[in-house]
Specification:
The chain has helices spanning 2-18, 33-43, 51-73, 80-88, 92-98, 102-122, 130-144, 162-171, 177-184, 201-208, 210-218, 250-280, 294-303, and strands at 22-26, 29-32, 149-158, 224-230, 233-243, 283-285. It is of the alpha+beta class and 304 residues long.
Length: 304
């Protein structure tokens, strides 16, 4: 009895230390944990990541293997010269930082080339009709409407410089605004006259924050607004240009819509094709083995 207990304990320890769990099976290709950690470190630059991320990567790898398997069956080839040419854009220094060899870099590029080529072959008969474009436009027209955009000229002064703030507040006008930008503003954009880009509310808000953007969009054209204190800075704003919102016209966005519909249809076609391959091939993702101990993974693999 003691011997049996020692044997079981020893077996448990041995398996837990040495067993390499199965993570995926695609046809006759079996992917185990050790190889997967190596793939992650080379393809993504890390292996110690959240299990949900690793699971998504694992599923992507499985689908890529389905595509590569069919590519070999169809005798599809890729241009090796282009692969080497593309690989050369990645310097030896970058490869060293990424901790991959030139050959490993080329293999990653090769997998991508095969994926793109197979997708083009599988979805080659996908097309988009003018009726589909028109229907999409009618359904989602508001998404293509052009929002109001504005350009403003801005003076930016440190809030600690109270004397200068008082001077500008007393003297600033529409006529001298541009010269005050050039002479006093502490914003790097002053070299460009302190002008913002022609942007929508959302675009300016991403660059400048909510407070200043709200002021720009409620100010009238050629109106000086300020001083406006925002954090450690004080601003004056003069709206230079306003482009009102405009309703989109079908002829202006038809090509954009066609690309959107084409991408959707290609994705659906590719997804349906991959599901067919899964049905015709032994395809199995054992992501549960990412969470289990090696011993439990061994038992799970044993009974499958």
């Amino acid at each position: 009895m003691v011997f049996l207990t020692l044997f079981v304990a020893g077996a448990f320890i041995f398996i837990n230390l040495t067993y390499d769990p199965v993570l995926a099976i695609v046809g006759n290709k079996v992917l185990r944990l050790k190889e997967w950690e190596f793939i992650q470190s080379k393809a993504y630059g890390d292996s110690n990541v959240d299990q949900s991320i690793s699971k998504n990567r694992l599923e992507t790898w499985g689908l890529e293997e389905l595509v590569l398997r069919k590519a070999r069956e169809w005798n599809i080839t890729v241009d090796e010269a282009k692969i080497k040419e593309f690989s050369q854009k990645n310097t030896d220094k970058n490869l060293s930082v990424q901790k991959i060899t030139r050959a490993e870099s080329e293999e990653l590029i090769r997998r991508n080339y095969f994926g793109v080529k197979m997708k083009n072959i599988i979805t080659s008969n996908v097309s988009v009709s003018s009726e589909e474009v028109e229907d999409y436009f009618k359904k989602f027209q508001s998404q293509f409407d052009l929002p109001e955009t504005r350009t403003a000229r801005i003076i930016k002064i440190s809030s600690n410089d109270t004397e200068l703030i008082e001077k500008i507040t007393k003297e600033i006008s529409i006529e001298n605004f541009a010269s005050y930008v050039k002479n006093f503003s502490e914003d790097p954009q002053r070299e460009l006259g302190g002008l913002t880009n022609q942007e929508s509310f959302e675009g300016l808000e991403a660059e400048m924050g909510s407070l200043l953007t709200q002021q720009i969009f409620k100010s009238n054209l050629e109106q000086v607004s300020g001083p406006i204190q925002n954090s450690n800075w004080t601003y004056w704003i003069k709206v230079e240009d306003i482009n009102p919102s405009r309703k989109a016209k079908l002829q202006d966005v038809s090509e954009k819509i066609k690309k959107i519909i084409l991408q959707i249809k290609q994705q659906k076609k590719m997804a349906a094709w991959l599901n067919e391959q899964k049905s015709d091939t032994h395809f199995e993702i054992r992501d549960s083995n990412l969470r289990r101990s090696r011993f439990l993974a061994f038992l799970g693999d044993l009974v499958r």
